[in-house]
């Protein structure tokens, strides 16, 4: 491609180390430390990347899943203020509009109190000082009990992400964002408590996923109908290799539930982000990854969450993977490896040219549908 890049990876605080809130933390200005860590790393890149042969004016920020969600907040940081930290973004299965909900003040206080109890700081005169001296192991234990949430602090996160996007308060840089066909199967199987036999099983699952938010009966009825029809059809956005009813362990409503949770967590946010970017005439690209790895059950899991990663990183040897995602059949494996080449080049093309569609060289037109790849019987394509 004659398009050299420099890849930089950085660590940042996770769990309560990076997202703990509550009045004490908020008054001390210690919320959203995870995002501040990322911005500090990006500032380091700006200051130092030239020493490695890089261009500080040509930085693409990339993440997957929760990493993509945090990138979404970086796109919204300070209401879209451009601090010159990055100039394009890639969000794989996550982005600026997602289900990373905010906690209200009473919920944040409850989370904070729980952390104080676990770390034996509940009776401390200065709870913040106590937490700073608490053993890391007790803080790690608390992280398992308190879910990570970002906080509207009026500064780094000035408002809810939905309102920021609605008001056009986002960083106007090119965006590459996408999802995998069967995103929902991995999330559903992680906490599958029983088969989806009746409509009530689906309703119970939806209400448990949404939490305190009310869903009108009319919307629930629509979801029941539309997602079941989608699960039973062969539409481009349907189940692919996954069966709507894989058997008694999963139930006849399994496919419907996987489609809904995939949309709820990631699919709807991906669509909305592309719409917002288009509304404000900022380049954005969307992908739909549809290759079921050989290491997973194609009829129950399919092309699920994170399975695009070995393709994106050109990891044709599956280094670091417990199970080889590429088929043993020589001919089929060759097709998968061809896709490794195509996808990794597309990501490089976006990082270098801010479009994925120059992966064959600058002579290729930036067309509406730039690439369609078949790795029998699945598809991969870019739309702008």
CATH class: Alpha Beta
Specify the biggest β-sheet.
Answer: 6 strands, mixed
The CATH superfamily is identified as Alpha/Beta hydrolase fold, catalytic domain
Low-confidence stretches: 362-384
**Biggest sheet strand line-up:** 1-2-3-4-6-5
- C-alpha Rg (nearest Å): 22 Å
CATH topology: Rossmann fold
Helix and strand element order: HHHEHEHHHHEHHHHEHHEE
How would you sum up the global shape?
Answer: globular
The name of the CATH architecture is: 3-Layer(aba) Sandwich
- Mean pLDDT over the full residue set: 92
Can you put this structure into words, describing what you see?
- This protein is α/β, with parallel strands linked by helices and 384 residues long.
- It has 14 helices and six strands.
- Strands 1-2-3-4-6-5 form a six-stranded mixed beta sheet, with helices on both faces.
- The radius of gyration is 22 Å and the shape is globular.
- Helices cover 43% and strands 9% of the residues.
- It has one domain: 3-Layer(aba) Sandwich (Rossmann fold), CATH 3.40.50.1820.
- A hairpin with a 2-residue loop joins strand 5 (369-375) and strand 6 (378-383).
- The chain has helices at residues 15-19, 23-27, 33-48, 66-76, 105-118, 127-133, 136-145, 161-166, 183-190, 199-210, 217-232, 254-279, 309-312, 330-353; strands at 60-64, 88-92, 175-180, 284-289, 369-375, 378-383.
């Amino acid at each position: 491609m004659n398009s050299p890049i420099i890849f930089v990876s950085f660590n940042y605080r996770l769990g309560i180390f990076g997202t703990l809130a509550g009045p004490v933390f908020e008054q001390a200005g210690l919320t959203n430390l995870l995002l501040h860590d990322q911005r500090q790393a990006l500032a380091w890149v700006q200051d130092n990347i030239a020493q490695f042969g890089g261009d500080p004016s040509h930085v693409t920020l990339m993440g997957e899943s929760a990493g993509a969600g945090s990138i979404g907040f970086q796109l919204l940081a300070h209401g879209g203020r451009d601090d010159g930290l990055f100039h394009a973004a890639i969000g794989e299965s996550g982005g600026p509009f997602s289900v990373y909900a905010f906690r209200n003040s009473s919920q944040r206080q409850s989370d904070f109190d729980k952390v104080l109890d676990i770390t034996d700081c509940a009776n401390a005169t200065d709870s913040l000082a106590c937490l700073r001296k608490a053993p890391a192991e007790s803080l790690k234990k608390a992280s398992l009990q308190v879910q990570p949430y970002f906080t509207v602090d009026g500064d780094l996160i000035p408002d809810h992400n939905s309102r920021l996007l609605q008001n056009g308060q986002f960083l106007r840089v090119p965006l590459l964002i996408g999802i995998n066909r069967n995103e929902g199967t991995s999330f559903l199987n992680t906490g599958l408590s029983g088969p989806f036999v009746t409509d009530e099983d689906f309703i119970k699952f939806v209400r448990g996923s949404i939490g305190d938010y009310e869903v009108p009966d009319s919307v629930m009825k629509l979801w029941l109908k539309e997602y079941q029809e989608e699960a039973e059809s062969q539409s481009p956005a349907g189940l692919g290799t996954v069966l709507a009813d894989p058997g008694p362990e999963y139930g006849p409503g399994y496919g419907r539930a996987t489609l809904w949770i995939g949309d709820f967590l990631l699919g709807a946010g991906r669509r909305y982000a592309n719409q917002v970017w288009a509304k404000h005439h900022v380049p954005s690209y969307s992908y739909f990854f549809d290759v079921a790895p050989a290491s997973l059950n194609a009829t129950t899991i399919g092309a699920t969450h994170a399975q695009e990663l070995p393709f994106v990183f050109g990891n044709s040897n599956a280094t670091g993977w417990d199970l080889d995602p590429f088929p043993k059949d020589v001919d089929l494996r060759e097709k998968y490896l061809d896709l490794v080449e195509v996808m990794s080049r597309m990501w490089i093309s976006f990082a270098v040219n801010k479009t994925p569609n120059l992966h064959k060289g600058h002579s290729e037109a930036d067309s509406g549908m730039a690439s369609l790849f078949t790795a029998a019987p699945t598809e991969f394509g870019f739309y702008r």
